Amino acid sequence: MKNQIAQFCEQIQQAVEQKSLVKVSLGNYQGNEPALKNIYIRLVLIKNIEKLAFTFRYKTKDIVKNFDLAEGYKSIAEWLEEGFKVATLMSTESDWQYEALKNGKVILKQKTASVIAKPSLEHDKEKKRLIKPTEKAYLVDLKITDEQGNVFKNAQDKYRQINHYVEILSSLIKDSAIENLHKVVDMGSGKGYLTFALYDYLHNTLGLKTQVQGVEYRQDMVDLCNQFAQNAGFDGLSFTQGTILDYEQKDISMLIALHACDTATDDAIYKGLQSSAELIVVAPCCHKQIRREIEKNKAQNELKFLTKYGIFLERQAEMVTDGIRALILEYFGYKTKVFEFISDAHTPKNVLVVGIKSGINPKRQEEILQEIAQTKAYFGIDYHHLERLTQLSK
Ligand SMILES: C[S@@+](CC[C@H](N)C(=O)[O-])C[C@H]1O[C@@H](n2cnc3c(N)ncnc32)[C@H](O)[C@@H]1O
């Protein structure tokens, strides 16, 4: 089987090099990834670099990830070894059909090309974007588009990011059991790019009457965003000046916080927990509190060969901080997901921690407390900010 997989991947590589690749599809999945059905792979150009764009099609959502070419070929081979039984390579030169049969035989066949038009390497998602660029006062105010709805060249990345966030939030909303999305709060809303786009999607695409609020301590941003909301006629969207921790209302159904610095993300999660929000979605940024703890206490563990390097220490602080956040969410009855939501070519702050309210499990709570205690001891952490806010530790 390995031999045919290697040959299949060589054909893909050749098609990429000849610029004849149309697409690769992997199907008949029998592996362990829950709800995964297919993977579709295309060649795309991102900032003039060729990448393989993988669309992972799950039962209820699609996730797109871009890989460097070598990494992409390797990944295709691994997915074929680990569970996809059928694969098709379509190129303008010829098609290739790979099939692993039940009796262990593997077939690799070359066929006549079914598509002869040269594929475009452009990111062609424009037509499928949830946030269309035309006739949106807020996109003009935010300097993403001109009055005619043309996305400015220097705002292409931002526009794609906004759409990507909304796509992710849209599938999280659909996957969760939220019945009444009456209020969304965006903590540390900044200039409000996502807040506006989410409001637009909820009201104008889903037809909901959700109240959306941004919380931000910079008065200038709050004033600007309130002005833009008024210009757009978004009656249910408002921005409030204040700190996240001072936010008193406890009727949030979905809480988001994107790149709220350091412990501001903990404050945001805490507010979500206090409200028993159905959905808590945070993209953390800078993990100084835990990094300081690790550096201060210098716990002696097997990882010191890594953490003597600043960059690894930073990554470790990030994983430990967000890992404990996920555990605390789980403790309070949230099903958790942690995933990369945007290519690190756009921003290194690309991890999303998601909590979907599901129900408390007392047995699991005991285990979680132990897991947190052990983790803290191992890494030399006296406290984690969210743990303190939620009074899981003094
Ligand atoms: C990096 S910006 C992100 C803005 C926006 N969420 C986005 O992703 O475009 C972080 C914003 O959070 C605000 N912020 C940070 N800590 C905060 C706190 N504790 N309370 C209120 N706002 C806060 C900052 O003023 C800043 O505008």
Return the CATH architecture of the largest domain: 3-Layer(aba) Sandwich
The CATH superfamily name of the largest domain is Vaccinia Virus protein VP39
- Give a list of the ligands: S-adenosylmethionine
Helix and strand run: HEEEEHEEEHHEHEHEEHEHHHEEHH
Oligomer status: single chain
Spatial order of the strands in the main sheet?
4-3-2-1-5-6-7
Specify Rg, calculated over alpha carbons.
23 Å
Going by helix content, strand content and strand pairing, the class is alpha/beta
Helix share, percent: 25-40%
Number of helices: 12
Low-confidence stretches: none
What percent strand? 25-35%
Domain Methyltransferase: 157-292
Pfam families: Methyltransf_32
GO molecular function: methyltransferase activity
InterPro entries: Methyltranfer_dom (IPR025714), SAM-dependent_MTases_sf (IPR029063)
Written overview of the protein:
By secondary structure, the chain is α/β, with parallel strands linked by helices. The protein has 2 domains: about 1-110, no CATH class; about 130-390, Vaccinia Virus protein VP39 (Rossmann fold, 3-Layer(aba) Sandwich), CATH 3.40.50.150. It contains 12 helices and 14 strands. A 7-stranded antiparallel sheet has the order 4-3-2-1-5-6-7, with helices on one face. α1 packs antiparallel against α2. The N and C termini lie far apart (about 55 Å). The structure holds S-adenosylmethionine. It holds the Pfam family Methyltransf_32. Keywords: Methyltransferase, Transferase.
